[in-house]
Amino acid sequence: MSAHKFKFQMYRSLQQNIPNIYADARKAADEINIPKELRGKFGLTGAISGCPAPLRDDIMEFSEHGAKEVIPLAKLVDEIRELVKSVYGDEYDACPVTTCEAGLWVTFDSLFSPPMMGRGDNYRARYIAPYEKHLHHQGSYGRPFPARYKDVLADRGSTAGELGFYGKRQNNLDTIIVPLAGARYDVHGIKYHPVPLLTDVDPDESLDILTEHASIHAPFLTGITSLGYETPGYGYAVKDEEGTPILQKYLADLAHSYDIPYVIDNAWGLPFVGCNPLKNGADVIIYSMDKATGSATSGLIIGKEEFLVPIRRAMGVHGDRYGTTASYGKAAYVAFDPGKEALLTQIQALKVLRDNPKVLTKPVDVLENIIKEEFANINLPAHLKDGILISKSYNSTAVEINYEKTWSNGELGIPIFSIEDMYAGSNIFQTGMAQMGVIPTVAYDGNIYVSTGLATTDNKGRLLEDVTRYAIKALVRLIEITCKYAGIA
To answer: Which InterPro entries match (predicted)?
Structure first.
């Protein structure tokens, strides 16, 4: 039985015991025998913006060779376009950008926000964003509606104030935040805040709710967005026979019934291998190419040509004024223009994804086996162990460890840290890993995503099993330690 009656008491106890948790974590790192020379130099994912994975040899060699040649950037962009069309067909196009967030920004401004030119007052526009994880990305380019969500983003971002996080909101654009059927939005964390718990999302009932909201806001509706992931912890457990999340297909159908675009944020995802617009019906998909894909820091927008034309015009790459099929000029979002070396790495990464995807998917199979083996031995009560759900994602080259079901039957479960905890530095599953010499991964909302790349793979992308196992053992021990101080184990 838990030492606490209410969950806020458990999180208060954790906050008070952070020094003890850190001390035990450092001791556990020694017991696991994590080599001293490895500590602080390897981690649970190579797919976080603050610490990207080293580039594979093939990507480095291709980039270095091209960097020594004289190549117009428009030629490199056209090569990326050709690679995308060779997989998805001629009706699709591409536009590289500096980052995924840059891709979101130019896409939402190009497709969702109202025009600024023309006489008279500007009209308002609205786009629908399901209330899912990472809402501060895909759901933050308009002012939240209804009013109950106006503080949903709270303190997120490194810089407070109008020119910090909130400054990216588009003029006269609202975000219609729609909770999903079967989801729970319980309050958790040391920095106590609602968290999306999505393993039981019902796509059919969710479609009814989304359709009702679309009908209410029909005169203002300009787009629908969502994440592109396919795991249970992100609400996409229900799939069709091809493995495509049903909810994503429903969102596409709903958008098209209003003749508006469906835009997917697939930052931690792979082109070609993962989220597929030919199957889910997305009009635009945006990637962070330095995360799962393994390119240098950059982003990529892929979508139907109809929607890529205004995006490419906003980037200044869609033809010269005197008439060409491509250019490299000035436009509203030229600041999001990636450099030559980034374009070269994207080309090589896309070639590998098209022609030899096992370079990225095979390590995920091995990673999944290691995680299942180590978590089978976790020292927790049976009801907590049974609530841990492990799922593989080729799209994200990751394995998802979801534990929201440890909170079943009204019992306190494995502590869930909010995204506010991540930004406040009170997410023990992240800060505690750093105490063990392991660079942490995304670990909030009862969901932990572990992927390859951060010194857990060699220079050809092959998984280093012994190094990977150190990281997973550390994660298991930190969960055990945290549960002890939470009074549940």
So the answer is: PyrdxlP-dep_Trfase (IPR015424), PyrdxlP-dep_Trfase_major (IPR015421)
pTM of the predicted structure, to 2 decimals: 0.96
Backbone dihedral angles phi then psi of residue 324, each to the nearest 5 degrees: -145, 170
| CA pair distance 321, 318, nearest whole angstrom | 9
For residue 204, give every residue at least 6 positions away whose Cβ sits within 8 Å of its Cβ, in sequence order, or none. 246
pLDDT of residue 160: 63
Distance CA 321, CA 314 (A): 14
Per-residue pLDDT tens over the stretch 122-159 = 899 999 999 999 999 999 999 999 999 998 887 776 66
pLDDT of 360 higher than 60: yes
DSSP 315: H
Q: Which helix (H) or strand (E) holds 95?
A: strand 92-97
- For the record, the structure tokens of 163 come out as 């020119």
Residue 444 in tokens: 């909030």
Q: Which of 394, 390, 294 is nearest to 347 (CA)?
A: 294
Contact 266, 285 (CB under 8 A): yes
DSSP label of 93:
E
Query: Cβ-count burial of 117 within 10 angstroms (0-12 exposed, 13-18 middle, 19+ buried)?
Result: exposed
Across the strands, what pairs with 400?
391, 449
Neighbour-count burial of 258, counting CB atoms closer than 10 A to its CB (0-12 exposed, 13-18 middle, 19+ buried): middle
Q: Mind listing the domains of the chain with CATH numbers?
A: 7-54+358-486 (3.90.1150), 57-355 (3.40.640.10)
Candidates 343, 342, 336, 348; CA nearest to 312 is 336
Length of the chain (residues): 489
Residue 437's CB is within 10 A of a number of other CB atoms, namely 24
Paired tokens of 150: 């106006």
Cis, bond preceding 144 (omega within 30 deg of 0) = no
Measured distance CA(477)–CA(375) in Å, rounded: 10
CA-to-CA distance for 320 and 313, rounded, in angstroms?
A: 10
When pLDDT is cut at 50, 70 and 90, the band that residue 49 belongs to is: confident
Burial letters 404-417, b for 16+ CB under 10 A, else e: bbbbeeeebbbbbb
| Alpha carbon distance 305, 293 (integer Å) | 23
DSSP assignment of 105-156, as one string? HHHHHHHTSPPS-SSSPPPPEEEEEES-TTHHHHT-SSEEESGGGTTTTTT-
> What does each C-alpha distance from 281 to 69, 239, 470 come to in angstroms?
39, 14, 40
d(CA 20, CA 38) in angstroms, rounded, equals 24
